[in-house]
Write a structure and sequence with these properties.
This protein is of the alpha+beta class. It has 2 domains: 263 residues, no CATH class; 93 residues, no CATH class. It is 60% helix and 13% strand. The protein is elongated, with a radius of gyration of 31 Å.
Length: 478
């Protein structure tokens, strides 16, 4: 065995101290040997995964970039900046491949059996890999909160600079865009290629007297560079307008199609003028600051609803408390001086409350989206530890050392992990699942399967209980 040649035999010397010292030294050699077995597979797996991701970017963006006639340095910078988010995803995958290949080779060469014969338990063999994975997870958390947000932001700025012949406003799903003065824009989904948006919310406070709120199911965005304007064409929505000087003046209008033109001269400046970061371009501290701002906004909207209800109730009360309460005309409308019907009053109050409730709902969606990104910065690095829990027993039980075996086994768990991660993100954005449950469910499910595999390894069971299956099949045939 390869590792036995690196461990010197323990001399027969009277005294427990010398024997313990030599055994401890042997364990250090064994630990170093197991970790060294993971280095080459990790580097190889990381390079392969990065290559696949980079190839996808090449097919997606290279044609568009080359068509701009950009210098080679700008093109190389674009691909180099994209390496940050690729590494954030590729490192946990590479850990799984390395663990599968390393323990698969040790098992296929019977070195695992030799270690067990030397009274080295499987848990002691895997412990150094767990420790290395934990250190790597901590480093990836730091990476996700320092390097990754800045690189993502620089990619966005560079992409804007590349495509400024057809400038695009940076609209992020479920994130308020406040880059245009006096406007706040929120969309649920964005199709950048076709300039289509859905779940549109636009708050317009450009007029100091009137506050307008527009909500629409879907729409399109058109950028008119010659006029320095942005044109929203919205479908199936409502427009709410409130007179800030007289809150009794409230109007609501439904529309099937509505065009909103906004002047955006700043959109055609140099990209350095834009300092707005999306949720994937922020550290945990920035995301938490945004969550606090959204909560303050929600509290303000909830206070506005309470104020509307309180004002309406006071309006129903007689001015002179000594006057007897009895049937009579309703309170007069300040605009017309005529008594208002109860139905009109209730409808006005409901419409105003609906406008504020739409803002509260939008803030809640924004908070959920921000919490998803916070948990994602920690759940993905933690996958390094989870994948060791999966890879070590799988490698030992499968007794296969080739990259092909490690590749297809890794692919199975990659698909399971990312299905839970992406599906959980979608459910969290729709407020169906709590963001913590959505982002950590992948680690919990895959980790639970890893614990079960690890227990089978400790009990020296086979990967699949073929003997039991065979007996059941024979009984069924009999």
């Amino acid at each position: 065995m390869v590792f036995l040649a690196k461990i010197k035999p323990i001399p027969y010397i009277s005294g427990i101290g010398i024997v313990t010292l030599t055994a401890s030294k042997s364990m250090k050699i064994l630990t170093r040997y197991i970790l060294q077995e993971h280095i080459a597979p990790f580097v190889f797996g990381l390079a392969a995964i990065v290559f696949v991701f980079m190839l996808n970017i090449v097919f997606r963006d290279l044609g568009r970039i080359l068509g701009k006639g950009l210098p080679a340095s700008v093109i190389l910078e674009f691909f180099a900046l994209n390496l940050a988010w690729i590494l954030a995803l590729a490192v946990p995958m590479a850990v799984l491949i390395a663990t599968l290949m390393a323990f698969g080779r040790l098992s296929s060469d019977r070195e695992i059996d030799a270690m067990k014969a030397g009274a080295v338990p499987v848990s002691r063999m895997v412990l150094p890999v767990f420790a290395a994975a934990a250190v790597l997870a901590v480093l990836m958390v730091v990476f996700n909160n320092t390097v990754l947000p800045d690189f993502n932001y620089r990619v966005k700025m560079l992409s804007w600079s590349i495509s400024r012949t057809r400038p695009m406003m940076t609209l992020e799903p479920n994130v308020f865009y406040n880059g245009i003065p006096d406007y706040s824009i929120l969309v649920q989904s964005v199709d950048q290629r076709k300039n289509r948006i859905s779940g549109v919310f636009i708050s317009d406070s450009s007029d100091p007297r009137f506050t307008k709120t527009v909500v629409a199911e879907r729409g399109t965005v058109e950028y008119i560079k010659a006029q320095e304007r942005i044109l929203f064409t919205l479908y199936n929505g409502e427009m709410h307008e409130i007179d800030t000087r007289d809150m009794e003046q409230y109007r609501r209008a439904r529309f099937e199609k509505q065009s909103i033109s906004i002047s955006i001269p700043d959109m055609f400046q140099e990209p350095n003028a834009f300092q707005r970061r999306g949720d994937r371009e922020k550290s945990t501290r920035m995301l938490m600051d945004d969550i606090r701002e959204d909560r303050v906004m929600m509290a303000g909207r909830e206070a506005a609803i309470r104020s509307l209800v309180r004002a309406d109730l006071l309006d129903l009360m007689p001015r002179d408390w000594s006057a007897p309460l009895g049937p009579g005309p309703g309170p007069a409308s300040p605009a017309s001086g005529k008594p208002r019907s109860a139905g009109h009053r209730v409808q006005r109050l409901a419409d105003q409350a609906a406008g504020e409730a739409a803002m509260i709902l939008a803030s809640r969606r924004s908070i959920n989206s921000l919490w998803v990104e916070v948990h994602k910065k920690y759940s993905i690095p933690f996958a390094c530890i989870v994948f060791v829990l999966i890879g070590a027993p799988l490698g030992i039980l499968s007794r296969q050392s080739g990259f092909a075996t490690a590749g297809w086994l890794s692919l199975v768990f990659f698909i399971i992990f990312w299905a839970f991660l992406i599906g959980g993100e979608q459910l969290a954005d729709r407020r169906i699942l709590h963001p913590a449950v959505a982002m950590w469910s992948a680690d919990l499910v895959v980790g639970a399967f890893g614990v079960a595999l690890f227990i089978r390894t400790l009990t020296e069971s086979t990967l699949f209980p073929w003997g039991r299956v065979t007996k059941i099949a024979k009984k069924a045939g009999a």
